[in-house]
Fold this sequence. Notes:
Layout: E1 27-31, E2 37-41, E3 68-72, E4 78-82, E5 91-95, H1 104-113, H2 115-120, E6 124-129, H3 133-141, E7 158-160, H4 165-169, E8 184-189, E9 195-201, H5 209-225, H6 244-263, E10 273-277, E11 282-285
Amino acid sequence: ISDYKGKPVMKMPVRTNMIGKKAPEVSAMACMPDNTFKEISISDYKGKPVMKMPVRTNMIGKKAPEVSAMACMPDNTFKEISISDYKGKPVVLYFYPADFTFVCSSEVPGFAALNEEFEKLGAQLIGCSTDTHFVHKAWKNATSEQGGLVDFDINHPLIGDFKGEVSDAFDVLMNDKFAPLPCRAVFVIDEDGTVMAEHRNADPLGRNTKEALRTVQALLEHKKTGRVVPADWTPGADTMDTTTESVDEYLKKLKAKKELEEEAPPIRDDTWRHVTRSSSIEAYII
């Protein structure tokens, strides 16, 4: 770029996310379900969906990029904001492809419906697409017949990233047939500005908005207790210390719960009554 100092240069951003790309053709040895070993690759499973950990392009552990852009605020005023404006509280930043579209019309009200819960946790919810902040305002005030959200309280800022700078900084612009819109990405950022969780979906795949809330709850539990949060954790459930003994204790409780569930007869009517609950087992009596 320095060769062209003194004149404007149009530079294509590096795309490091995998949305819309073909999965890399690599193979490696795997431990199979029956404990045998086999060399496998993604192409071995062509024709069926595959869950695969992608090439390291994620932002986990990095500081959230310092970028700012105009946003349409809850009261429909406009304001320039950045993630650093909310330092000291967790931030949930979600991206979506475009206003006046289809899945997006379900997701933005879905996040808004959870905003009161985010606020109770001291967290800030922010949405972002590459529309202008003016289009955000128009979408919020348009009728459902027009594809708008006037019947819903969109109670959090929507960033109008029409220059694509925020989307580029968080590397959420989709590839190939989905380009150049943002994917359905969610970033959970802690009070110090560090990215602690991220999730990305392609355009056709709507998200579970409640998972973002659960992730913030898990983050705050970890920050409060120093303990780690196991799979499918919900507030009030068991957490773990980072010791083998703690893992052993947790897995034994998990096994006991599974065995109890398998032994319990199905509940078909009001004959069975739920009478007690603990973090590890459920007991039923007639």
